[in-house]
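Internal ticket - ligand job 208, 5-O-phosphono-beta-D-ribofuranosylamine:
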Amino acid sequence: MLRIAVFASGRGSNLRAIVDAIEAGTIPDSRVFLVISNNSNAGALELARARHIDAVHLSRQHFDSDAAFNEAMLAHLRKRDINLIALAGYMKKLDSHILNEYSHQVINIHPALLPDFGGQGMYGMRVHESVIATKSPRSGATVHLVTDEYDRGPVLMQRSVNVDPTDTPELLAEKILRVEHELYPEVIRMIATGELRLPGLDLGGRRE
Ligand code: GRF
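stdout (structure tokens):
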């Protein structure tokens, strides 16, 4: 079974899309057991509570050291036997301790066609502004494995959209967000069914 933790800093629309797909039965044998946010005001935490999912605000500021912060995060993950971490607009870099323990089990969604328009500082509206400024004819969404380099882990799946001459960064963001809400649940569905194999993931007896 896929036991998912979603990490989010903002409104949580991708979290909603994932939870909706699970509830609708589109993603089999899966559940979101935990939502973690560095931002106590994140819509994602509110949404999690409304859906009766454990919602945890975890901020580095509340810990004396990186080690204590990482241990607290790992304790939350281990307690619920999490086997897939899905980053959905999580604005903090995950420490290598977490990435090592969850090697090949952390995925992220990025609102552009990586490797283009990714990397440190490339988030939110900046991505779409750059796409338009460089007159790229296409953009889209990418789900990729997370490594310790921003937006550079292996791509799992991408979906593209045309960039129209009339697109503003805001319009492009909306267009891509609609694609994200299909793409992220689709990738998780494929992981849950084993169509997409993650080397680190044990779905109950199955290990590679
Ligand atoms: C999405 O655009 C995602 O691609 C990026 O952060 C945004 C999160 O949006 N990584 P939401 O909080 O899921 O609505």
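Auto-summary: The CA atoms of residues 116 and 131 lie 9 Å apart. The mean pLDDT is 96.
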